Every structure is written in C-alpha cells, then in structure tokens.
Amino acid sequence: MSGLIRVADDQLATIVTTLEMTRRPPLRAMPEAPLRLVRWQAPAPERYRLLFTRVGARWLWYSRLAMTDAVLTAIIHDPQVWVFAAIDRHGVEVGMVELDFREAGACEIGYFALVPELAGRGFGRWLMAQALAHAWRRDVTRVWLHTCTLDHPSALNFYRAQGFVAVARTIETFPDPRAIGLLPPDSAPQVPLLARKR
Question: How much is the average pLDDT of 166-185?
C-alpha cells in the first residue's frame, strides 16, 4: 500500500539513509588536494557555526544553528568529538569533518562537507580519506554516517563508492530553517520555500 502524506508548508521532509563500514578499508595512496586538514581543539561556537553554515546552508543544515551556545559547546568541546577544518592554500576554511566517538566501539562521521564551490573537483575523496584515516586510528569496529535526499545529489553514491554500505532508511520531518529564520530565504534554491519567514 502506498500513499502521499501532506507536509505543512513550514516543514521539510527527507528520506535519511544510514550507511556503515565495519572493516578498516584497504590502504590506498592518499588522494591529492591543495588542502590540509586541521583539528580544531575546543572551537568557539560562533566560529564553528560560521563554517557549519558555509558548508551546509545549501543542504539546509540547521541543527547546530538551533542549539544554544551551551548545548553546542558541550558537544564540540567533548574530548570524544573531533572537529576538523579543511583549509586551502590561502588559509581559508573550505570544508569540515566532525568525528563522534562517544559511542563505544564506533565513530560517527557526524558532519562532512566542502563548500559548494568545490563540488565535483575530486576533493571529496581526499576529505573522506582523511576522515577515515582519523576514524580508524581509534579502537572502533564501525564507522557510520547518514545522508538524506536534501544532500548533494551524488552524496549517496559517493559514500557507497568509498566503501560504506546502506543499512537503514528513515523519514525525517523538521521545520524549514529558512521559514524560522535560521538560514536566509535564498539558501538551498533547489528546495522550494513554501512558507514565509515568521
């Protein structure tokens, strides 16, 4: 049986796919990129949110924008959460990776993205190789992440090509972050904004 479910104009709905890797991938030559990955030790919430928005606004990332400073700081200052910035030759932050080791034996790649301008240039493979190298340095048996239908159209296939296997699918609904003022109305022009900002 199938059917359509109406979603309110001020809400978004997306299909979320969870993917995992349960074995360390075989060693390969590290892809090259004119970038370097720098771990941010205890980043300030405003600095974190600035990069989070730069890499994620196009894909309607909003969860960390909705948190209070105290809640966000508790997460990104946790010693089991590693935040990295990808930096270009000019010292500009152009990507981020967040690894979450708070679940014993597992690493969640909580956030993974480059600025949209770098899409399709092969830098994603470099960033993922870096992320996996850091994730598997710890005593883990599972590295996992999720993506959704609001993400880059190639995201799911990209993760599968890196060795992740899809293991679950869920539907998520949430307030449109543009409608509630967390992101500008012109963010994610590929997703129609049906509601006016409150």
Answer: 96
Decide if 96 contacts 52 (C-beta within 8 A).
yes
Q: Which residues pair with 86 in a beta bridge?
A: 37, 95
Which candidate, 114, 98, 92, places its Cα nearest to that of 43? 98
- In this prediction, residue 129 carries a pLDDT of 93
CATH number 1.10.3720.10 is the correct assignment for the domain at 11-175 = no
Question: SS in 3 state form for the chain?
Answer: CCCCCCCCCCEEEEEEEEEEECCCCCCCCCCCCCCEEEEECCCCHHHHHHHHHHHHHHHCCCHHHHCCHHHHHHHHCCCCEEEEEEECCCCCEEEEEEEECCCCCEEEEEEEEECHHHCCCCHHHHHHHHHHHHHCCCCCCEEEEEEECCCCCCHHHHHHHCCCEEEEEEEEEEECCCCCCCCCCCCCCCCCCCCCCC
Domain-by-domain residue ranges, the chain?
A: 11-175
Q: What is the pLDDT of residues 31-67, one digit of tens each?
A: 778 899 999 999 999 999 999 999 999 999 999 999 9
Q: What are phi and psi of 43, to 5 degrees?
A: -65, 150
